[in-house]
Structures are given as structure tokens and as C-alpha cells.
């Protein structure tokens, strides 16, 4: 049975909607302290740009062999042009809208000796007129996809996510949300949301034991009319809560090197597999394995089908 949906992954079409960003890395060496202030001096030796945010989620979808369309907004600045160049070099189908008044989100990280010394963020928020244009493109793209993945980084690109969720569910599509903020009512009706431990605690409150965690998760699921809630719990693994009960999957990571973008990998794997017809439990187990692989890599990264299913 598993082989049936495995063979269909290549035909799965995932619409990825959300906040895109450019992840820029400056790699260098630190050999002295600045005479101007008590800070390390990094001598930059190499630069690297990677797709970030929703773009990284889309990259993870295609890395598994599925098809991805990325719907978002970028500026006409250098990071926006670079992001579009990276997309052109990938197998992601781009549906980006450009806006001269928007500053493309850029996360600049300075790395030395495999350690992050500093991160600088550059960003602005898109206006509502621009988001209305995005909504029209979303309505046009929706019928041609099997599932919708919303990647919410709280940058303003998903101001109308509630309407988008309802439209996708009315069209019979699976809807997966990587949430942000304290108001999850915006995601009501989604198939699945994937908060991490801290995000879930911020919305549902702390828990003393597994029974209380399950109670809070099931209450949230029922209140928002969700099919399931998946709480990712770092070294504790991840726990799925659905009408069928609770499924806990222990962490698969052998060594944690960098957790950047791990949430993108989890939800992208879920979307690709559900889009191919996999059951929710099979998709969660695969997403857990994918997370275990990606945290062993430096920076935002993706997982290939060969890594996830070696020997096939």
C-alpha cells in the first residue's frame, strides 16, 4: 500500500503560499577581537544565498520529487532579484508578484567555525492592495493543485489566510498550515496545523504532563474544526492529535547541527505525501525522518527522496 502513494509523489501538485525570504550566509574566520569594541572580527571568505521561508518549503516539496508552485510577493530590490534567480535555477514554478515599495525579507547570518555569530533581518510589510492581487492569483492557481501549504512567518503576506483556507477546503483540497502568532482562529477549517512546542504553548498554554497536552491539543483541534494538530517537539520528536487519538513519534535525529528551516521540511514532507494520497500517520512518520535528516545539515536545507527512502 505504501508503494502506491510513493509512486504518486512525483505527480502531487502543491501550492505553497506565504512569506518568502532570502537566507544569506557569510562564512569566515575569527582570529582577533576588534580594537574599536569588545567584539570578534569576522574575515568573510565565502558567501552563499539560499531560499528561505515559504520558498524553502517549496524547495523541500520539489526535493522529494513533487511539484510546487510558489505564490508570494517580493520587492524589486537586490534580494528580490536574487531570490527570483534562485527560483529560476530550481524546479519550483514561480508565481511571485513584484512590488517596488516592498523590501524583500533578508536574513543575513555571519558564520565562523560552524557557529552563528550574528543574524541581521531586513524586512517590511506588504500593503493590503498588493495582498488583494495575490488573492486573485491564488483563486486562479487553486484548481490546478492537490494540496495547499501556508507558510506563515508573520511578515504580512498571509493577511487573508482565513479566506484562502476556506476556499481551498470548499474545493476539496488538503490544507496544511505552519502557523505564527497567537490567533489561530485565522486557520479555522484547515486540515492540519504544525506549531512547534513554543508556538503551541503560546496559544494553548503550558502543560504539566502528556494528558494535559493531549487535552489542550484536542480542544484546539475541535474549536477550530481541524482534522489534526501536529506539535513538533524538537528533541522529544513530534505528536499528532486527531479524532483517532494521539500518535507520538520519537525524534529521529542522530546529531543536531542546525534547526534552521526544519519546520519547512516537516510541513513540506507532509504536503507532498498527503498530496500523493498517503495516510496522515504515514506522512507524519516520514516528516519526522525528514526533520532528523535536515537538522544534521548547516543552515536552511532540504531533504531528497533518496535520503528519505534510501535504497528505493
Label this structure with key terms:
single chain, about 300 residues, alpha/beta, UDP-N-acetylmuramoyl-L-alanine:D-glutamate ligase, nine-stranded mixed sheet, four-stranded mixed sheet
Structure description:
The longest helix is centred in the C-terminal third of the chain and has 15 residues, at 280-294. The strands form 2 sheets. Strands 5-4-1-8-9-10-11-12-13 form a 9-stranded mixed sheet, sandwiched between helices. Strands 3-2-6-7 form a 4-stranded mixed sheet. The protein has helices spanning 2-8, 54-63, 78-89, 128-141, 161-170, 197-204, 210-223, 262-275, 280-294, 305-308; strands at residues 13-18, 20-33, 40-53, 67-75, 93-99, 106-112, 115-122, 147-151, 174-178, 192-193, 228-232, 238-242, 245-249. It is of the alpha/beta class and 312 residues long. The protein has 10 helices and 13 strands. The chain has a single domain, classed as Ribokinase (UDP-N-acetylmuramoyl-L-alanine:D-glutamate ligase).
Write down the overall geometry. globular
**CATH fold naming:** UDP-N-acetylmuramoyl-L-alanine:D-glutamate ligase
Read across the widest sheet, the strand sequence of neighbours is: 5-4-1-8-9-10-11-12-13
User: In the CATH hierarchy, what is the architecture at level 2?
Assistant: 3-Layer(aba) Sandwich
CATH superfamily: Ribokinase
Radius of gyration: 19 Å
CATH class: Alpha Beta
Strand proportion, as a percent range, falls in 25-35%
Keywords: Kinase, Transferase
InterPro entries: PfkB_dom (IPR011611), RfaE_dom_I (IPR011913), Ribokinase-like (IPR029056)
Protein name: D-glycero-beta-D-manno-heptose-7-phosphate kinase
GO molecular function: heptose 7-phosphate kinase activity; heptose-1-phosphate adenylyltransferase activity; phosphotransferase activity, alcohol group as acceptor
